[in-house]
Amino acid sequence: MGRQRVKFTFEADLVKEPIIYMLGRDFHLVTNIRRADVGDTLGWVVLELDGEKEEIERGLQWVSSTGVRVDPISGDVLQG
């Protein structure tokens, strides 16, 4: 099992899409939202992903393919 923290940035056309739900369902990952700010035209979400390392990688590649920007994060995202 692995764990990875990432930040997703959504543009206007993707804000209302259930991408995080589909990521958890289709790639058998546990998604834990740590922080988020989502509006009508832009949004970002900081997630912890738990699952098999290969599934995390496959899932993140899929998210990127949808047009969502994916950035890795290190450290405790609740601090600072």
Account of the protein in words:
It comes from Geodia barretti (Barrett's horny sponge). This is NIL domain-containing protein. It is globular, with a radius of gyration of 12 Å. Strand 2 (30-38) and strand 3 (42-51) form a beta hairpin. Strands 2-3-1-4 form a four-stranded antiparallel sheet. It starts with a strand and ends in a 7-residue tail after the last strand. 16% of the residues are buried. It is an alpha+beta fold and 80 residues long. The protein has two helices and four strands, in the order E-H-E-E-H-E. The protein has one domain (2-73): 2-Layer Sandwich (Alpha-Beta Plaits).
What labels describe this entry?
four-stranded antiparallel beta sheet; 2 helices; Alpha-Beta Plaits; alpha+beta
